[in-house]
Design goal:
Layout (H helix, E strand, L loop, with lengths): L23 H18 L2 H8 L14 H17 L8 H16 L7 E4 L8 E4 L8 E4 L6 E4 H22 L3 H27 L1
Antiparallel strand pairs: 1-4, 2-3
Helix pairs in contact: 1-6, 3-4, 3-5, 5-6
């Protein structure tokens, strides 16, 4: 994901820690943690528990205008980014894919799919801490100001995977095979763990 660079010996930065790259094996661990976290967050029972509280505020996690903000700042730039890679995505394919993304984002959330959602689920909302070579990466999810009663699979997860896929496309374009393999590992393990954990929670 990040590229390791040797500091200039004549620069004061030589005393600063070097940001390590993330290996595909670490990507699998990161994906597993993310999948497990979002599966737990997106359990319908969380919303039902809140709604059963006697002092439940009907405006809880509702933000007027939030949908428009995220649409302009996050969803619409997806099309702009895809258009940067005409050799990979013909113009007509970009329009078709983007329209599906926007339609999914703007449609009304059905009651049976309403969950607690991050609401603006991008890679910049993820903090990754890499310890020593034997430790698993630490993962944190931040930026909860857009948290809402929204969509899980067709909201948070779809947005995060789309964002990760853009990075995978960029890695392929720049011929950074290691970075592409790491991003792919994160996405694959995230989705498999999300499905496994969601099923386990629903059965409990």
């Amino acid at each position: 994901m990040t590229t390791k660079k040797e500091p200039n010996q004549d620069s004061p930065a030589r005393t600063s820690p070097i940001v390590p790259s993330i290996s595909p094996a670490e990507g699998l661990m990161i994906g597993r943690k993310l999948g497990s976290f979002f599966a737990g967050l997106h359990q319908r029972t969380n919303v039902e528990m809140i709604q059963k509280e006697p002092y439940h505020d009907p405006h809880f996690l509702k933000h007027d205008g939030m949908l428009d903000v995220v649409l302009e700042a996050v969803i619409k730039p997806v099309k702009q980014q895809l258009n940067l890679f005409p050799d990979l995505f013909p113009h007509d394919a970009v329009s078709m894919v983007y329209q599906r993304v926007e339609d999914k984002f703007t449609r009304t959330t059905d009651d049976d799919e309403s969950v607690i959602a991050l609401g603006d689920c991008r890679t910049c909302a993820l903090l990754i801490g890499l310890g020593d070579s034997t430790g698993a990466p630490e993962v944190a999810v931040v930026d909860w100001e857009f948290a809402c009663i929204g969509k899980g699979v067709n909201g948070d997860l779809a947005q995060l995977l789309a964002h990760l896929h853009l990075f995978e496309i960029a890695a392929a374009w720049q011929e950074k095979a290691d970075s592409g393999a790491t991003i792919n590992a994160i996405m694959k393990r995230l989705t498999t763990e999300y499905r496994r954990r969601s099923h386990a929670l629903n059965q409990s």
